[in-house]
Amino acid sequence: MRFSAPSCTGLARSSMLTELIVKQFALMEQMHLQLGSGMTVFSGETGAGKSILVDALGAAFGARASSEWVRFGAERAEVTAVLEGVGEGVQSLLAGQDMDGGDQLILRRVINADGRSRAYINGVPVPLKALQQIGNACLDLHGQHEHQALMHSDFQRQIVDARIAGALLQSVQAAYQQWKQEQKKLDQILTAHEETVRNEAWLREEHGRLQALEIEPGIEPRLQSLVETGRHFAQIQEAAATGIAALEDGDTNVRSLLAQVEKSLDQVVGYRQDLDESLELLKQMDALLGELVPDLRSVLDEAVDPQELAQAEERLMDLHDAMRRHQVDEAGLIALIEDMGKKVQGLDTAAWDADEQQRNLEEVRRQYQAGAKQLSRARQESAQALVGDMRPYLDQLALQGMQVEIEVRAFAEDDMHWSEHGWDEVQFMAASNPGEPFRPLASIASGGEMSRLVLALKGCGALQTAPDIAVFDEVDAGIGGETAWHVGGLLAAMGKDRQVLVVSHLPQVAACADHQARISKHQQDERTLTFIESVEADNRRDEIARMLGGANVKSREHAAQMLQRGQMAHASS
User: Fold this and answer.
1) Residue 143 in contact with residue 473, Cβ under 8 Å?
2) pTM recorded for the entire structure
3) Structural domains in the chain?
4) Nearest 5°: CA angle at 208, between 206 and 211?
5) Is residue 425 helix, strand or coil?
6) For the segment 239-272, what is each residue's pLDDT rounded down to a tens digit?
7) How many CB atoms lie within 10 A of CB 213?
């Protein structure tokens, strides 16, 4: 079944549900809804299957799957939701899934008969969590987003804080973060000092031992060379003496033999020109050997100082021992000495450092306390004003007897309660009737009352950050008459900024909507099917007449009057 609603120009927010395609879902065999902006109401007789529509929306946006969603006899159910005008928040979520965003987003959920399901975004398989994240960002399903959140103190605080200057909230947040940073610095100083003090004797002794080694870059290879030279000095001198004797001593030394060869070649070089090169090489060899002899003679002139050798051996041994002890090389030892030096120095300055850091900590603590105190006063004023602003809406929504107050408790003396949001605990309290004790909102309000509380908060502008698509199912429970008109008017006003989908049995609410669809249940081929069809013009008048209790001439006239009133109220909202 196809329901087509013309688009309205009033929607100022970004995301909008334009299509919902349902296959083999519970009592729905196949359905294709095309939705417009503003407020759409879904009406129908009790038991027609209005809750199925809500479940299908939940499935598309990641609700927990149920095997009961699959139509009896089918292998699987499918729900596809098409969104237009996707905002930046959803675009960021898509980027987190490595998916390209766009102005259109297609969410698809396939539920097998055994209850298992698969999720897709723009045809790409994704974890179910991805659908849930998009649902949290775009869809306020069945009022759950605010109904459940409104039970929690953090969300209640956010409602109160929405009326407080952002600069004050930010300054308290910054002061708290600075206080925690300064506290962390002090803890680090004290921890490091305690650890250093425990090892003070060893640290000072070991630092002195390492400093005595007079370690500098390249010290190890230099000491190693000195030790090796001293240990093999006799062998070195013997090799030098042998070399000198071979080069210059006696009649048949190397240089004299080279001179003889040079003389012989010199006598015949004129007869063969290519011998010039050989003769030149001989002369170069003799020159090089001549430079070698003085170096060897200087070796013979040297002597070894046993005391210096012993000192070098001892320094090298101490150096290697330090390397083994600390399991580092020469460069590591140099870095270790520098680090130990800082720790030794820190032993003398730690108390001063801790005192200075303690003063810094106290200063930022005072800054935080001043900001938190100012924020607490602002919250008291904001809470009082919000309660006053809500009162007219609560009265209009048949909650005249419900008393609401917002408790702001300051924990100024207990820094365990301090946070970047200040030191207050904010809690919405309610009493069902005058004279009864106030209790936390969650223990007082019913589902229908919570829905109307949310409407009251939205009516006075307290919920400005709600998702773009709102779905209400219990908002009109237990009300009628003028209260129902107020509910319809508030929902229609909300539809100017958001897309609002309402399941309702109240003709007053239906009359205020931009669009209306009827949910019905029929027998076909001995099976029960749920259908959804758009109702427009006279059909809409007839549907509202049915909601009034009949389809006679009088009820039709009344329905026409209600539609006229609803649209007039809608236009003025």
Assistant:
1) yes
2) 0.61
3) 2-162+464-572 (3.40.50.300), 200-344 (no CATH)
4) 110
5) strand
6) 877 777 777 776 667 777 777 777 778 777 777 7
7) 16
